[in-house]
């Protein structure tokens, strides 16, 4: 090891430092597959004080630090490509103080999302931010990307559930932000700068998370849909006439890949270009009858061609798999992903325009759509053709990114709805953010990270 790396042993134990090639490759990456990993070391802090010492060491030696959680990100935000030191929060994974009165829990950043959900359940409470990677994603990463997921329609984003943060800035300062106060009208709420900052301002070492009352029983409907306009009409009916929790859309191509990969039976006999999954609260028989009435109205109008409603928790879980197993079913094709958003009302014309762009650009390639239509968030997955190298595939996809993001800009949307900016979207940030905004963001980073050591080269 270099003298600088050897110096880590002055404040960390040897078992908190890894420099072997296997560890560098494993902890130096996330779920993106298109970057060459070049980490110089992996460190595992146990306390806020450890993180402070790391930052001071990094400033002294002018070495960059990369935060690493569950490594489930899709933007390259947790990737080490320039010899950086990766700071893994795997070993800062304690669930600490719980307040039944405040309905909050203090956690360390390495707590896995599913572990927090299970803890909440043990207290007869509920942590509602949910998505396919709950079994491996970590809360520090969720906060740093303001993770959304499948229940945003009802429960909002991660931001809405963070009551307080303890962070270590790039200057080595420890900030305790908001102290879990419900009301705090004392100037800028710096907590919200760190939520979604992808570790570029500092590292989260503790978070106070709000929990919710347990949800009522749910029913899940899967519906075959005649077209995009029908999707939004169905959404409007369910949104205004039921207690809608989630509203998801996926294409026939996405469903086909899930059925091939999982062996699940098709949900419906009728085939359609698009399918919708809706989850609604059913507190009593009247709620269930009301949901069925909305479904029947959609059938009568011709918006829904066929559909089914869950009759058990097991069946509801199976229905969710048609949507949640899409990413895993596509993984073997090394898909090029885009995660974009517009306001909900603009989804149909936006998708029409985007479909024309993609059809012209990829006339022989398979493009798979799915998304959280209830919050205007769409996921585009372009499958790598057989025989095409990874490098050539990415090069071609990046060319079309410009056309995709021009369409996003036309509709005043976001080039990254929930995956973050990281490395993959950094050069396209100006399609969503103005030059003035980007300059302000650079100024904010300079204040919190004067030596540019906190996840440099990401976001801006």
TrEMBL record:
Keyword Iron: no
Keyword Flavoprotein: yes
Domain spans labelled FAD-binding PCMH-type: 35-214
Alphabetical UniProt keywords: FAD, Flavoprotein, Oxidoreductase
UniProt cross-references to InterPro entries, sorted A to Z: FAD-bd_oxidored_4_C, FAD-bd_PCMH, FAD-bd_PCMH-like_sf, FAD-bd_PCMH_sub1, FAD-bd_PCMH_sub2, FAD-linked_Oxase-like_C, FAD-oxidored/transferase_4, Oxid_FAD_bind_N
Stored Pfam families: FAD-oxidase_C (PF02913), FAD_binding_4 (PF01565)
Cofactor(s) in the UniProt record: FAD
Family: Belongs to the FAD-binding oxidoreductase/transferase type 4 family.
Record protein name field: FAD-binding oxidoreductase
Organism: Bdellovibrio svalbardensis
């Amino acid at each position: 090891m270099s003298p600088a790396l050897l110096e880590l042993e002055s404040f960390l134990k040897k078992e908190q430092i890894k420099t072997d090639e296997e560890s560098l490759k494993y902890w130096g990456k996330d779920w993106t597959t298109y970057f060459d990993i070049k980490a110089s070391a992996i460190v595992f802090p146990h306390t806020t004080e450890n993180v402070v010492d790391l930052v001071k060491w990094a400033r002294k030696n002018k070495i960059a630090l990369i935060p690493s959680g569950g490594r489930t990100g899709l933007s390259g935000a947790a990737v080490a490509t320039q010899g950086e030191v990766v700071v893994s929060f795997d070993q800062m994974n304690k669930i600490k103080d719980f307040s039944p009165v405040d309905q909050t829990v203090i956690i360390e950043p390495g707590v896995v999302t599913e572990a927090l959900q299970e803890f909440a359940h043990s207290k007869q409470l509920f942590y509602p931010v949910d998505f396919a990677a709950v079994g491996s994603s970590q809360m520090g990463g969720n906060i740093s990307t303001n993770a959304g997921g499948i229940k945003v329609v009802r429960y909002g984003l991660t931001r809405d559930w963070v009551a307080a943060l303890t962070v270590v800035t790039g200057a080595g300062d420890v900030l305790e932000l908001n102290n879990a106060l419900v009301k705090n009208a004392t100037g800028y709420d710096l907590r919200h700068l760190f939520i979604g900052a992808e570790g570029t301002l500092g590292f989260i070492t503790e978070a106070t998370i709000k929990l919710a009352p347990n949800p009522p029983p749910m029913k899940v409907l899967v519906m075959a849909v005649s077209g995009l306009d029908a999707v939004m009409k169905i959404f409007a009916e369910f949104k205004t006439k039921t207690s809608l929790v989630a509203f998801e859309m996926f294409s026939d191509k996405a469903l086909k890949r899930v059925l091939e990969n999982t062996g699940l039976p098709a949900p419906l006999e009728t085939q359609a270009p698009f399918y919708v999954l809706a989850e609604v609260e059913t507190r009593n028989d009247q709620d269930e009858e009301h949901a069925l009435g909305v479904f029947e109205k959609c059938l009568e109008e011709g918006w829904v061609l066929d559909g089914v409603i869950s009759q058990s928790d097991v069946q509801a879980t199976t229905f969710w798999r048609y949507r949640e197993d899409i990413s895993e079913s596509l993984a073997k094709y090394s898909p090029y992903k885009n995660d974009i958003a517009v306001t909900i009302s603009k989804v149909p014309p936006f998708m029409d325009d985007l479909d024309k762009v993609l059809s012209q650009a990829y006339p022989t390639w398979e493009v798979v759509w799915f998304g959280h239509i209830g919050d205007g968030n769409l996921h585009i997955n372009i499958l790598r053709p057989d025989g095409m190298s990874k490098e050539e595939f990415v090069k071609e996809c990046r060319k079309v990114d410009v056309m995709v993001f021009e369409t996003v800009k036309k509709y005043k949307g976001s080039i990254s709805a929930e995956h973050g900016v990281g490395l993959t979207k950094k050069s396209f940030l100006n399609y969503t953010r103005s030059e003035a905004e980007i300059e302000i963001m650079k100024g904010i980073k300079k204040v919190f990270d004067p030596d540019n050591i906190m996840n440099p080269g990401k976001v801006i």
